[in-house]
Amino acid sequence: ALMPQSKWNKRHLSWRVRTFPKDSALLGHDTVRALMHYALKVWSDIAPLNFHEVAGSDADIQIDFTKADHEDGYPFDGPGGTVAHAFFPGEKFSAGDTHFDDDEAWTFRSPDADGVDLFAVAVHEFGHAIGLIHTSAVESIMRPYYQGPVGDPLKYHLTYEDKVRVWQLYGVRDSVSHTDRPGVPPPTEPPVLGDVPNNRSTLPMARDAPDRCSSHFDAVAQIRGEAFFFKGKYFWRLTREKHLVSLRPAQIHRFWRGLPPSLDGVDAVYERAADHKIVFFKGSRYWLFKDNIMEEGYPRPISDFGLPLDGVDAAFVWLHNHKTYFFRERRYWRYDEQLRQMDPGYPKASALWKGLPPDLDDAMSWSDGSSYFFKGREYWRVPGSAVEAEPGFPRLTSTDWLLCSQMQADSPDPEAPDAAATTGDTRRQPDRAHDGYEVCSCTS
Amino acid sequence: GAAPSGTAQLDSVDWLSRFGYLPSPDPVTGQLQTQEALTRAIRAMQRFGGLKETGIFDQDTLLLMGTPRCSLPDVPEGSTGRSRR
After folding, report:
1. B83 part of contact set with chain A, CB < 8 Å
2. Which residue from A109, A161, A416, B39 has the least number of CB within 10 angstroms?
3. What is the model's pLDDT at position B47?
4. Which residues of A19-54 are buried (b: 16+ CB within 10 A; e: fewer)?
5. Cβ–Cβ gap B71/A78 under 8 Å
6. How confident is the model at residue A186, as a pLDDT?
7. Rounded distance, CA A343 to CA A333, Å?
8. Which member of A125, A161, A226, A438 is catalytic?
9. How far is B58 from chain A (nearest CA, A)?
10. Residue of chain B nearest A3, judged by CA positions
11. Cβ of A80 and B8 within 8 Å?
12. Is A267:A312 a contact under the CB 8 Å cutoff?
């Protein structure tokens, strides 16, 4: 060891791409985020580390595409030369931050000559971000020199030496055998694709799929910076830029793995501030998810939170104080995630939140710093640390969040024949292009 | 040795300092480095890079120095030079 080894004392690390490549036509934002996800996953697959993408500015690992002198003591030097760097764990504010030279031609799944493979460099830099230093081993990803693309991010595996070095820092992840040696294939190929978020159903939309434009929602949550609207067995997902990922709702059970098949809906959902795990409430029970996989030992009774067993209407983390708020009918509770207990003095009357109705459907905080409360087809916005809804609310959830016009419905009434199809009268066919929206469903 | 052509405005000595093979320049003597220290640094760089240890800026060495790489040093600051016994 050439230097005192530094490592993170915590095992749950948040990350965020703060700035993206400016001139890359090949790498869109979602592709960059996906590549970062998989580059971090290379390390968390074998060590007991958990990485979670967040929206806020206080991520442990801030990722930037920058150029020239960016005032961190490691100026970039244009194309070639130095291509990236990351800061070791430690006390510094910049610990874990990772910078890529925006003057490089960053590529993905391209020939070596076309540029620098972003995934390969990201795996290397995230090695630094968790505490690894350079090595001279030719096969190691921690060799300082760029050695070209490393292949498909979904199939990439560290060399045994790299694994050993990260195990020395953090130990071995429970699901990993540290006795697997090079050249000996693992007994079963890890289900790499199994961790890929997949909210696209290959099946036609079921007959019971709700209409997003006329629905009220069972639950609404901000998860990893994105908005999720739950209705029955389905949910819609909006990116952090409030773009609807798909007009079709996704099926809850196809994405959130482990929920009982009989579960026909959820009451409230929120992402825990402390460890970014996701909590689902239904009736007197709750389920805990790490990413989209359910944890062992659930469901459990909501009395774990100190809540009465009659259920929860709404749950959200107030950005103002990072406390978790639960609403039920005309009362609300404040929960401290660090202490894992309700704050004393609760429940209180929900009327203290001025301008909000009782019996909420759900609530969430959003990246604009406001809190949003949903009931029926309407929602209210409460800015910052205020406890009063803004003037001008409620507004229609469907128009402001779900890309609906006031009169629009997703699908024609199944009981009524499609007039446009039977008569050729296209004037009656809803045409979303006329709304000024073209919505695509795509993955990285 | 000649400055490597592929290292974008950095001469070879600066390159060796930047990545930890040479100690930071002496504040009194400026950029001056002893030939002995320079040879030692080149050999260390060659050893780390998997090259033949010639101690001079030969073609393979210059080629490797021109290869795109991570900004962080190979030899962390404070670990070069004489160590206290």
Report:
1. no
2. A416
3. 94
4. ebbeebeebeeebbbbbbbbbbbbbbbbbebbbbbb
5. no
6. 41
7. 8
8. A125
9. 18
10. B76
11. yes
12. yes
How far apart are the CA of A73 and the nearest CA of chain B, in angstroms?
10
Task: Give CA–CA dist A444/A108, Å, rounded.
Answer: 11
Helix (H, G, I), strand (E, B) or coil at A434: helix
Rounded Cα–Cα distance for residues A63 and A70 (Å): 13
- Number of Cβ within 10 Å of residue A140's Cβ equals 20
Q: Which residue has the tokens 């700035």?
A: A19
Look at residue A20 in the predicted model and tell me its pLDDT.
92
Give pLDDT tens digits for A156-194: 999 988 998 998 898 888 766 555 544 444 433 332 322
CB-based contact B70 A104, cutoff 8 Å:
no
B76, two tokens: 């962390």
Query: Which pLDDT belongs to residue A120?
Result: 96
Q: Is A125 considered catalytic here?
A: yes
**Tokens standing for residue A301:** 């009774």
pLDDT tens readout for residues A107-147: 888 777 778 999 999 999 999 999 999 999 988 999 999 99
| Stretch among A169-183, A259-273, B35-49 having the lowest mean pLDDT | A169-183
A146 vs B: CB within 8 A: yes
